[in-house]
Amino acid sequence: MDTQSGTPHCYRHPGTETGIRCTRCEKPICPECMISASVGFQCPDCVRTGSGTGHAAGANQARTLAGGRVRSDDRLVTKILIGTCVLVYGLVLVLGDRLVDELVLIGYAYNPLLGEVVGVADGEWYRLLTSTVLHQEPWHILFNLIGLWVIGGIVEPELGRSRYALLCLVSGLSGSVLAYVVAAPNQPSLGASGIVYGLIGAWAVLARRRRHDMRPVALFVALSLVMTFTRPGISWEAHVGGLVAGALLTFALVQAPRARRELIQFGACGLLLLIDVGVVLARTAALT
């Protein structure tokens, strides 16, 4: 409730004022959350749990801020990503350095354990993605899993599953690409930090879009960057690449006009991926 104007705020989007309430539970709902019913409008929760009588399919289905479908489990992609990181970490504990050597991000280097040249520049492009779910140290995976759960839990419900999955892909890949371009060719890089920082960038854009108080968001982003550049052994390139890509893609996702929403959204995603591919090709040519 706005203490000055007395106008209620949407229960799902606290920064949005509204005069509409769900005809079933009487919660305040904004235009993004309103679902047509036989009488008035109902909220996504009532429709999702089957307690409402609204039309959940087609044009009347509840949509996220970015136009995705509202799901009963709004952290499914986050859970799958966390599960993947845990699975790979378990394999690392069992198989050891051999698996790390196969999956870690390396630009171009001679690996004495394998007795051969390895790296992205040698055609192993898969390392740009496998490194984003690879961890060796317990503190490293714990920090990233907390970030994925907390910040991903904020971002995924706002974007919807497919758009959120693309955000994670582009953020992680862009972080790896910047590390590939800037870091020394034989410097290894691994971890989901690029994805986490992409989610931080997305969170900042979403908070701005929702007209939330930006001061705590700006403080959190600033502290995250301070940690990036002051702690030893941190791949700042992956953090910065993920942060910038995540913010840019989220801006396109939430600002796209409804009439051409999907064209702009997936076009922006495709453009960022093409830029990543072009940068990788240029760096590979320079190294080889």
From TrEMBL:
Localization in the cell: Membrane
Residue ranges of domain Peptidase S54 rhomboid in the record: 123-255
GO CC, one annotated term: membrane
Entry keyword NAD: no
UniProt entry tagged with the keyword Membrane: yes
Residue ranges crossing the lipid bilayer per the database entry: 76-95, 138-155, 164-183, 189-207, 214-230, 236-254, 266-286
Membrane topology, as annotated: Multi-pass membrane protein
Entry keyword set: Hydrolase, Membrane, Protease, Transmembrane, Transmembrane helix
GO biological process, one term: proteolysis
GO MF term set: serine-type endopeptidase activity
InterPro entries in UniProt: Peptidase_S54_rhomboid_dom (IPR022764), Rhomboid-like_sf (IPR035952), Rhomboid_protease_S54 (IPR050925)
Short name of one Pfam family: Rhomboid
PANTHER family: PRESENILIN-ASSOCIATED RHOMBOID-LIKE PROTEIN, MITOCHONDRIAL, RHOMBOID PROTEASE
Similarity field: Belongs to the peptidase S54 family.
Record's protein name: Rhomboid family intramembrane serine protease
